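Archive transcription. Copying these from loose printouts into the bound notebook so they stop getting lost. Printout 1 of 2:
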Amino acid sequence: MHAAVRVFAEKGYHGCRIADVARQAGVAYGLVYHYFRNKDELLESVCAEQWTIFIRALRAASEGPGAATEQLAGICRFAVDVFRTAPAAVRVLLLEVVPTPNAFRAGSTRQTFEEAVSIVADIVRRGAARGELRADAEPTVAATTLLGALELTLTSMVAGIVRGGTEEEIERVKRALVDQVVGGLAPR
């Protein structure tokens, strides 16, 4: 699957073949088909693995120590750090999945997306109840705002619109996200 991420990121989903993935992985062409029926299923597995990692990070932030603002800031930092450590995976998730028909089956995107929104909304709800966040913050809207800001920021980093090639640039992006998105939820 790691080979698939590299090939999808380099050639795009539509530009790559299973043979390219096999060559990158250093395995026989037929072995890929032993594990995956086709390229769609391989992309689906890559995405499921990456979403699982993200959902675990959201849960860890939600269940971890600190005020709601710190938990939300941790989510922002984690997402940008993923770009730093695994830019190919971020590229595939953001640029290859959306335009690919049938990338997910049986509503798994909706279920996964709802889970992510629910986890972040719970952080917002608890933070508002404790006075750490604005009392008038609508938890679901705040959660989708934060997740949407992360998605578009990362997409802009992948596309080179937002600079994130150096440690200093990565830290600047993290500070800006936390300040502007999480800061917008701070009590007035």
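Printout 2 of 2:
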Amino acid sequence: MSRIGGRPAISTQHVYGLTLRIARWREGAPGTPLLFLNGIGADIAAAAPLLAQMHGREVWTLDMPGVGASPDALLPYAAPTMAAVVMEIAGRFGHTALDIAGFSWGGALAQQIAIQFPGRVRRLVLMATTPSVGAPGIGWAALLDDDMLASGLKLPTATPLGLAYQSMAMAGWTSAPMLPRLKDVPVLVLMGERDGVVPACHGQAIADLIDGAVLEVVPGSHLFPFTHAATVAARVSAFLDQPPVLQAAA
């Protein structure tokens, strides 16, 4: 079994017929917990170098069905179903409100959760992601990502069925008509300046649809959250720690 950095608490949750491995760093820390949703085929161990550096808060993530130590789903699932699964787990942990950070495929799921569960997402960080997935296979090109090849990161860690179901869940998915509803949720969009998988124009499309969203193009290619983990962790932490924006009196 891969060694997971930062020594998170590992558990298993059974939700709606799925068995999912969960990792929680700094379990029970005060403040709003951060949920991290990974890219297609990427497991807890791949996210650990980033999440272990998110100090001062509880951070948790999970292996999607067929990824890492989570067994395959028996049937295909859709994005709204997985959003409900994730929020059921959050409820079991006592998390009535969350900050959510999503990378690539996980960024699409993060958008789905924020739209599907209004009022339960405090702040949203979207990394190397898109508002629309035109066809199955988002994330496959990451296998040839420049930073990944240079770093030696091993992705994906999923079964063929796990990859297929993740791809199918987002095939034809779009958040574009619904993103304007997130005008009251602070949103940070981070895109890699050399990302050939999800170019920065996808992040611009998200920022254009959400009033007040902040777009930043950062060094690195598609896997910048992992290959530039310290820098990304510091930027995300600073965003999450900002005081709430006070609404102007009418």
